[in-house]
Amino acid sequence: MRGLFFCILTLLILGTVLTAFVWNFFSDRTNVHPGSPPHKAPIRNSVPDPSGTCKGCRDTVTEKVVERYSHSWRKQEDNFTKFRSLLRDKCHGVTKAMVTQANTPLGSKVVYDGEKRKPLQVTPELFSTFAKENPFVNTTWDTCSVVGNGGILANSSCGEKIDSAQFVIRCNLPPLENGYKRDVGNKTDLVTANPSILMEKYGGLQGRRRPFVESLRSYGDSLMLLPAFSYGHNTPVSLRALYTIQDFDSPSRPVFFNPEYLQSLAVFWRGQGLQTVRLSTGLIVASLALELCANVHLYGFWPFNQHPHRHQPLTNHYYDNRQSKKTVHSMPAEFDHLLRLHSQGVLRIHLGECVPAASPGCSTEMAWAPASFSGLSLQAGSLGSAMATLAQRKTTSQTQKPWAGPDTNVSGPSGLGQGATEDPTQGSDSEQRTKQRRGNRR
Ligand SMILES: *[C@@H]1O[C@H](CO)[C@@H](O)[C@H](O)[C@H]1NC(C)=O
Ligand SMILES: *[C@@H]1O[C@H](CO)[C@@H](O)[C@H](O)[C@H]1NC(C)=O
Ligand SMILES: *[C@@H]1O[C@H](CO)[C@@H](O)[C@H](O)[C@H]1NC(C)=O
Ligand SMILES: *[C@@H]1O[C@H](CO)[C@@H](O)[C@H](O)[C@H]1NC(C)=O
Ligand SMILES: *[C@@H]1O[C@H](CO)[C@@H](O)[C@H](O)[C@H]1NC(C)=O
User: Which fold, 2-35+50-439?
Assistant: First the structure.
């Protein structure tokens, strides 16, 4: 008995040391996502320390995940309704998330949410690019999947589950073909597109544009949401994307994020205690989903480079391991807020593997048996196992299988991550906004 006690004590101490190590080791790479505000980010008096934005939560987030996530999830109608009303009152995503001809009249000025001092006059030409009507009016969906691009989705087998939602939201034109379908699905109703990716992958659409149009095929006739009015340099490239889609008769439906909406969301989340320079796309679309959908499921949102349960290293995205340079987002801090909503039954985060519907009886094994103790020496992350094991012991009576097993009803494995979510605001040619607007139809 005493032996066991010492053993546990030792593990706890080792665990603490290892946690510190893990966080220090990984944290530099985790919360970084590209999305550089152009030159100087608006410096507010309390710009958070990029690596430690989530002061105090770094040490506890793993613990929280293990603890909170290991309870079976149930939607709490009251909490959901309350949160949704709050969000709707403050942000009006249903009517305001996108720029439309109704909410942004001819002759008015668009104020960039990231660059407020240079408003843009709505000329007839610009006005004609706005959506005629709001695509969300009088529409709500029962179930929505919001798919982050986190490495945690790799080998998750969650594609079918993701696609089973009525409305599927994806971030930043993620690849869906070449074998990813099994893990991430391919149904898409709304997809965001950062100007940064248009610049990097498609030459800012200044040269050949067909490759871009072809890459959009996998998103069918989904809405493509562009942050055209976050920074001045986003506008020309976003307009080129829209013109390209029109000129090539692509079924894709480009629409622009409304900077007023993004601004109100930033204020909303600041009011919730989130400190960050810019909200990530992932949090933005998750917030939008909470206004539009009765049941919000998040996949691919997990901001750390190590699997929460299996502890193997994760790539930054499910499709690559590209690291980002700048640290304007605070993924761990955002995650902490989302996890709180998960715990309150407002939305559901999926972190485990999904079991294909075809074989519901075949649940995977619990992987955090004491065997993983032996892993202490090899991977920093084994600490998680130790903690998990302890947590598991505490909760065995509940017979939950938090990380394993079918993600059908019991509890929730499937995949929350957040590599999704680069800053909606990047782009990079600040030059010649005006000149380009129309000049580049070809
Ligand atoms: C969420 O719901 C539970 C039970 O319905 C309640 O105890 C809890 O206080 C609620 N949380 C919030 C933040 O409203
Ligand atoms: C939306 O609903 C409102 C009130 O329920 C109604 O007046 C309006 O015509 C509807 N709009 C559309 C486009 O269906
Ligand atoms: C996914 O599984 C394949 C085959 O089992 C393996 O080669 C690959 O490394 C795995 N990828 C990740 C990110 O775990
Ligand atoms: C998704 O995949 C299915 C089957 O592979 C295919 O039939 C369908 O066209 C794909 N959807 C899109 C939008 O590409
Ligand atoms: C899961 O819950 C839904 C709705 O509560 C129910 O219709 C479905 O049969 C359940 N599935 C399983 C596998 O229990």
Answer: sialyltransferase cstii, chain A (3.90.1480)
